[in-house]
Structure formats: structure tokens, C-alpha cells
Design a protein that fits this description.
single chain; alpha/beta; Rossmann fold; 2 domains; 17 helices; 12 strands; globular
Length: about 475
């Protein structure tokens, strides 16, 4: 390949992009490959050793000529396999913000050095064959590489601040638990209006203890919400402290400094609150939709307590979520003004789901489809029992299916939207990347990473959310101000 090629990279299409091969590559073992995508912190492409197409290639990733990590091929690329007429897995993906070779501080230091250099247009990403002095592909990832470097630096710095450190053990309040006694808690995660209340009722039918929760039925949810009012109020207070509300779709957890020492007292209070709600060892379930937005915070609190957590993600089609939220506002006579229309609700779905998935990569997560709760509730809950590690009671599950699963409560169903905007398209793409609407399936850390890597368009929007967040927060404050009496 021409080593001076600085053509911006475009996403891979159905046909394989073949590079202009550097003359050194004509020496055995004849490497072939291409860097297809450089977007945000994501690098994606393919590489093969022509003499052994099915073998694994080890690659170094360089930024501005500095080594920032390594990656091996192993991802499926049907287009490459078809072009070379060989069954193989030549794809590779690399995330500058999440690699096992160097931490984010190392990458940030390199970016700062590149931005501070006299070179007005520093080199971008290079892919090098490990163990050989061969550059497979060299390219600038954007028309303005300095702008791209600043965006990457911005993302990495905020991600570092969003990973909270554990509280000192002396700050964790005592409980009734003796050594050897454990608490297992299934955390129900999902965007508002996604069926998390119905699913939590199913967990109760499996024998999980919900603690001292508030049933709190109303016209919007006649079976109740299965939420802890104290935890809900705590989340609302924490969001207010962070300058946001649950409906502010400009709030992205990856941009929040959850390591801020000022939040230490909040984590202490959250740990005390969990002990108060679940005072004895046992198997519990906890659902509060705001936890999905604040999951980095609550995950750290659970780690502080040493509780074993089971992450369960309930997902509903974003079109149904938007319609359900709209209908709720119509029934109440007023809605939440910033998400009352479908498009901003789709934006809330996309931003919340991306932020949530980004913070679920440390352990396995069970994905539950909202539609399957209605089509086969007993099979869904049996699959959940396997994931949690409990033996289901057939009679209790049948009672749950008869008393709680009510099609009349499913007021919004999937329709083909004619007014879907850019956020609707981003939400749809992420929803489809989660896979078909089937029975529950386990998402591994690798599965979640691959899903996020496929969402370059959505990831590219994240740096711009701060302005939206601030605007919505300002408008929210104005709406809450009392009207002056004339």
C-alpha cells in the first residue's frame, strides 16, 4: 500500500475493499487487509495471511506512530470469505477506550503529545503486522484528524472519570449478615415503558424477594410498579444533584464524573438504603427504571457491599416505547414535555440503551424481549430461573401468566412509523443489533462489545449531548418556577 495514503476511511460495504498493496507485502506470507472503519474510538477492519487464509493474524494498533494496543483477527466477515472463496474469520475490532494492553491514561498522553506537536496534520491510525516491520494500512480517520483526536481525548477523559473507585471499607454500614452469608440480587434494567414492572412480577413468582416495595397501582399500570419509593426518591435527588432528570435525553452517564469525591456521601447513603430495603441474606429482585441511567453509580455501590448481582435487561421496540409514553401523556392530560413527542422519546431510548450497554460489559447479562413476555411468559420466566439459579414453581408461574399477563395492558404495538427522524433511525439500528425477538438469551461481554462497535453513527453523536442536556435542564428549571400572581 502507498504509505502516504491519507484518504478518509469509509464504512465497509457489501463488497470487499481491496488496498493498494505495499511492495513489501509481496514477500511471503503475503498479507492482505483493510482498515474499513475509524469512527469515534472504534477501529474495524480485516486481515488475512494469503498463504494460510484460515490462520489468526496478530496486529498492532498505532496512533500517530505510537503503539496503543494489539488485536487479533477472529470476527466473521462473510464478504471477505466470499471474495477469497475461503471459510475464515478475518475481521478485527479495536476500541481505543477499552483495550487490555494500555490504559486510557496512556492513550490520552499520546493524543495530547500529537495535538501539541508542530505537525499541523499528524498521522492517524496505522495497523501493523505484529512481529514484522510491515504497515498493513495507514489512514487518517477523518478529514480533520486534529478534530478527531480532540473528540477521542474528550471521550476517554470522561470515561475515566465515570469509573468510580470503591468506597473505603470502613465507610460501609454494618448489616445483619454474618460471614459466609451472601445476598444475591437480580437487577431489572430497561428504559421506561419497557415492561419492567410486568417482568419484576414474574421474578416474584420465581420466589425472589422484592423487599419492602410499594405496589402503587394507577391508571397507567393497573398491576402496580413493584418499586421501592425510597430508592425512587433517592434516584430523583441524585439526578437533581447531577443537574438532570430522568427524561433529559441529553444526559449520558459516560460523560459524568462518578469518581467525584463529592459523590462519596451519596454512595454511602445508597449502600445504607439498600441494606435498609434488603436487610437479611437472601435472593432479591430490584427494579427502578432510573437505575438504568445511573447504573455506573449503582454498580459501584453493589460492588462496595459485596453483593452478587444478576443483570437482566428488558428491551422493548423503541417505536412501542415512544407510542406508549405518548399514550400515557394523553391519558394523564399532560405528559413529560421534553419526551412527549415520539422522536425525543426515541432519542431517550437510544441514549439510555447505549449508556447502559457500555456499563454492562463486565459480566453476563440476560436479554429479555418485551414481546416474548406476552407471547410465552412461562417459557420466559423458566429461562430467567436458569439464569438466576432458582427452581421455578409451575403453579406460581401459571398464576403469574393468568393474573398479570394481560394483552389489554399492552396498549402500544409495533407499527411502521412514517415520521421517524434521525434519532428514530439510530434507535432502530441499535434495537436490531440486539438480535431477533426470541426467548431470553445471555449476552456475553464480547456480544455487548460487538453490538456497541456496530453503532458508529450513534457513538458519533455522544460528544454533542452535553449542549442538549444543559438546554433541557435550563428549560426544566424554568417550567418548575412558580408563575407570578398579577
Amino acid at each position: 500500500m502507498n504509505s502516504n495514503d491519507t484518504t478518509p476511511v469509509e464504512a465497509a460495504s457489501a463488497s470487499v475493499v481491496m488496498p493498494d498493496v505495499h511492495t513489501a507485502l509481496f514477500r511471503p506470507p503475503f498479507y492482505r487487509g483493510h482498515l474499513d472503519v475509524v469512527s469515534g474510538t472504534l477501529v474495524y477492519g480485516w486481515c488475512i495471511r494469503a498463504t494460510e487464509p484460515g490462520s489468526t493474524c496478530r496486529l498492532n494498533v498505532l496512533l500517530g506512530g505510537y503503539l496503543i494496543g494489539s488485536v487479533s483477527t477472529g470476527l466473521s466477515r462473510p464478504d471477505v470469505s466470499e471474495a477469497f472463496e475461503h471459510d475464515m474469520t478475518p475481521g478485527f475490532s479495536f476500541d481505543l477506550s477499552d483495550n487490555g494492553d494500555f490504559d486510557a491514561d496512556h492513550v490520552c498522553a499520546i493524543i495530547r503529545k500529537l495535538l501539541a506537536s508542530d505537525n499541523p496534520e499528524p498521522r492517524g491510525v496505522d495497523i501493523q503486522i505484529a512481529g514484522e516491520n510491515l504497515i498493513l494500512n495507514r489512514t487518517n480517520p477523518a478529514e480533520n484528524i486534529q478534530s478527531w483526536l480532540r473528540d477521542v481525548l474528550w471521550t476517554l477523559e470522561r470515561q475515566e472519570r465515570s469509573n468510580p473507585s470503591p468506597l473505603p471499607k470502613t465507610e460501609i454500614l454494618p448489616s445483619d449478615r454474618s460471614p459466609g452469608q451472601t445476598t444475591e440480587i437480580a437487577i431489572v434494567l430497561g428504559v421506561h415503558r419497557s415492561g419492567t414492572s410486568l417482568f419484576t412480577a414474574g421474578l416474584q413468582a420465581l420466589g425472589l424477594d422484592l423487599g419492602d416495595y410499594d405496589q402503587n397501582e394507577d391508571v397507567h399500570n393497573k398491576r402496580g410498579y413493584f418499586e421501592h419509593p425510597k430508592i425512587r426518591v433517592f434516584n430523583e435527588r441524585l439526578m437533581a444533584h447531577l443537574g438532570t432528570t430522568w427524561e433529559n435525553w441529553g444526559f449520558y452517564p459516560g460523560q459524568e464524573s462518578f469518581q467525584d469525591p463529592a459523590l462519596g456521601s451519596w454512595r454511602h447513603d445508597a449502600a445504607s438504603l439498600l441494606i435498609e430495603c434488603f436487610p437479611k441474606p437472601g435472593r432479591y429482585a430490584l427494579k427502578e427504571p432510573r437505575m438504568s441511567t445511573l447504573w455506573p453509580f449503582w454498580k459501584a455501590v453493589l460492588n462496595d457491599l459485596g453483593w452478587e448481582k444478576r443483570q437482566i435487561l428488558v428491551v422493548r421496540n423503541p417505536e412501542e416505547v415512544a407510542e406508549s409514553n405518548h399514550q400515557r401523556g394523553m391519558r394523564a392530560g399532560r405528559g413529560f414535555p421534553f419526551i412527549s413527542e415520539p422522536e425525543p422519546m426515541r432519542a431517550l431510548w437510544a441514549v439510555t440503551m447505549h449508556g447502559l450497554l457500555s456499563n454492562l460489559k463486565d459480566c453476563q447479562t440476560l436479554l429479555v424481549r418485551h414481546a416474548s413476555l406476552y407471547s410465552d411468559p412461562v417459557a420466559v420466566m423458566n429461562a430467567c430461573a436458569d439464569f438466576i439459579g432458582v427452581v421455578p414453581d409451575a403453579t406460581a408461574l401459571k398464576k403469574f401468566s393468568c393474573e398479570f399477563v394481560d394483552e389489554t395492558m399492552r396498549r402500544a404495538t409495533t407499527t411502521v412509523s412514517t415520521d421517524r427522524g434521525a434519532w428514530g433511525i439510530l434507535a432502530r439500528n441499535l434495537y436490531e443489533a440486539l438480535g431477533p425477538e426470541t426467548l431470553p438469551k445471555t449476552l456475553s461481554t464480547a456480544d455487548i462489545s460487538e453490538i456497541l462497535l456496530s453503532q458508529q453513527d450513534l457513538t458519533a453523536q455522544l460528544p454533542y449531548l452535553g449542549a442538549i442536556r444543559d438546554s433541557i435542564s435550563c428549560l426544566h428549571s424554568l417550567l418548575e418556577q412558580p408563575t407570578a400572581v398579577k
